[in-house]
Amino acid sequence: MRDDIEEIMFTPEQIQSKVAELGMQISDDYRDKNPLVVCVLKGASLFMADLVRNISIPIEMDFMAISSYGASTQSSGVVRIMKDLETGLENRHVIIVEDIVDTGLTLSYLRDSLLRRNASSVRIVTLFDKPSGRKIEIIPDYSGFQVPNAFIVGYGLDYSEKYRNLPFVGILKPEIYS
Ligand SMILES: O=P(O)(O)OC[C@H]1O[C@H](OP(=O)(O)OP(=O)(O)O)[C@H](O)[C@@H]1O
Ligand code: HPA
Ligand SMILES: [Mg+2]
């Protein structure tokens, strides 16, 4: 599996230290708000698990599955809800947890859809931001690392469902998908 990686971009230690920073910021900003922390499956699952352990205030967790990539490195542009939330959003402060914002299509769809359910506020935390990929303007409220225009895998990020379990994040060799 590691032979398919061209270059390691972030080590497990770099990732953990950034996740701790983000957790501290969120704990400060959401004191007494009991936010609902929403994980966007499947990519954000590893980030979610580490992030919530770095949040020191009471929170609730819920999970949503949406998909736009399928077995491709290009977004299809069509966002589908595969699993919806179980929690009502009325008067809730929602934090959407994402692994990566690339075209922005997934999050822009998701944020609008959660705001329509009368959430008090919706903010986005993403571990990775790829601004060069944007097709729609969206600026994450909390962002870990900016990444260049390359397809990255590991720490939850997949190519065709593989590589999510790598403990680091790296650039996939282009010959794997071309
Ligand atoms: O900004 P965008 O171009 O919309 O891309 C970002 C989204 O795409 C990936 O999910 P994917 O649809 O591949 O599902 P997955 O999380 O199950 O891998 C990733 O986890 C983000 O949710
Ligand atoms: O660079 C990426 N890697 C994995 N999944 C993704 N979804 C959007 N961009 C990416
Ligand atoms: Mg994916």
UniProtKB/TrEMBL annotation:
<dbReference type="GO" id="GO:0000287">
    <property type="term" value="F:magnesium ion binding"/>
</dbReference>
<comment type="pathway">
    <text>Purine metabolism; IMP biosynthesis via salvage pathway; IMP from hypoxanthine: step 1/1.</text>
</comment>
<dbReference type="GO" id="GO:0032264">
    <property type="term" value="P:IMP salvage"/>
</dbReference>
<dbReference type="GO" id="GO:0006166">
    <property type="term" value="P:purine ribonucleoside salvage"/>
</dbReference>
<dbReference type="GO" id="GO:0000166">
    <property type="term" value="F:nucleotide binding"/>
</dbReference>
<keyword id="KW-0479">Metal-binding</keyword>
<dbReference type="Pfam" id="PF00156">
    <property type="entry name" value="Pribosyltran"/>
</dbReference>
<keyword id="KW-0808">Transferase</keyword>
<protein>
    <recommendedName>
        <fullName>Hypoxanthine phosphoribosyltransferase</fullName>
        <ecNumber>2.4.2.8</ecNumber>
    </recommendedName>
</protein>
<dbReference type="InterPro" id="IPR000836">
    <property type="entry name" value="PRTase_dom"/>
</dbReference>
<dbReference type="GO" id="GO:0032263">
    <property type="term" value="P:GMP salvage"/>
</dbReference>
<dbReference type="InterPro" id="IPR050408">
    <property type="entry name" value="HGPRT"/>
</dbReference>
<comment type="pathway">
    <text>Purine metabolism; GMP biosynthesis via salvage pathway; GMP from guanine: step 1/1.</text>
</comment>
<comment type="similarity">
    <text>Belongs to the purine/pyrimidine phosphoribosyltransferase family.</text>
</comment>
<dbReference type="GO" id="GO:0052657">
    <property type="term" value="F:guanine phosphoribosyltransferase activity"/>
</dbReference>
<feature type="domain" description="Phosphoribosyltransferase">
    <location>
        <begin position="14"/>
        <end position="159"/>
    </location>
</feature>
<keyword id="KW-0963">Cytoplasm</keyword>
<dbReference type="InterPro" id="IPR029057">
    <property type="entry name" value="PRTase-like"/>
</dbReference>
<keyword id="KW-0547">Nucleotide-binding</keyword>
<keyword id="KW-0460">Magnesium</keyword>
<dbReference type="GO" id="GO:0004422">
    <property type="term" value="F:hypoxanthine phosphoribosyltransferase activity"/>
</dbReference>
<dbReference type="GO" id="GO:0046100">
    <property type="term" value="P:hypoxanthine metabolic process"/>
</dbReference>
<dbReference type="GO" id="GO:0005829">
    <property type="term" value="C:cytosol"/>
</dbReference>
<keyword id="KW-0328">Glycosyltransferase</keyword>
<comment type="function">
    <text>Purine salvage pathway enzyme that catalyzes the transfer of the ribosyl-5-phosphate group from 5-phospho-alpha-D-ribose 1-diphosphate (PRPP) to the N9 position of the 6-oxopurines hypoxanthine and guanine to form the corresponding ribonucleotides IMP (inosine 5'-monophosphate) and GMP (guanosine 5'-monophosphate), with the release of PPi.</text>
</comment>
<dbReference type="InterPro" id="IPR005904">
    <property type="entry name" value="Hxn_phspho_trans"/>
</dbReference>
<keyword id="KW-0660">Purine salvage</keyword>
<dbReference type="GO" id="GO:0006178">
    <property type="term" value="P:guanine salvage"/>
</dbReference>
